[in-house]
Amino acid sequence: MSAKPLIIGHRGASALAPENTIAAFDLALKSGADGIEFDVRLSRDGVPVIIHDETLRRTGLRSERVSDLTAAELKQVNVGSWFKPRREPSPDDLQRQAIPTLEELFALFPGPKPVFYLEMKADSEQRRDLVSACCQFLKQHPSKGQVIIECFDLTAIKLVKTVDPFLRTAALFEPKLIGHHLPTAQRLVAQATTVGADEIALHHRLVTRRSIESAGAANLEVVVWTVDDPAWITKAHKLGIHALITNHPARMLVKRQSIPKD
Question: CA end-to-end span of the chain, whole Å?
């Protein structure tokens, strides 16, 4: 049984390597992370590819939209040269990184570990196609049981459960104000349970004892994003948080080792 909280690399070890690349995922898992979180969009030819932004502007230094290029064309885009780590020069092998496909990622990291947090970057136009592509890929894949599909678009989460009720899902929430207040714990939990989510993934600003207790009462595992302060390890352990998503998994793992075993 894995230690808790689980440590999940946010877009891999994205503090130390270009996000959402094989280099970042490899670094996270070699450091001992329990899993990786990554973003999935569709290429022009309907292939699930791993990239966060709608365009290539930030990480590819190009102006095209991801959906305007085929998977083969996206493979030619370098998404490593933009990356500049804060404390040390980026090694030459990080300067040239391609956009992985979902199939490539799963082929490179098989076995009982890691846990995969697959975030669908769905808009209303591509929602159904993206859900269909992800579910179809996972349908017969041996790593299906290690995958949690997450999304801010709760309609997409509901659709995943309609296509394949056995896929595990997480409802994502960020701190959007309602009037002058953050949404209540009860409201977030109700929204997650309404779409059949198995987990609730909360931005760290939404985490309170009440939100954790409300989720637990609804049988929802709690995932917190994105945290790099090792103090979160102690807090998560005390509150019973299931997993922490972090840019720097190695740093968080060092702290977790100091937590007494239950």
Answer: 12
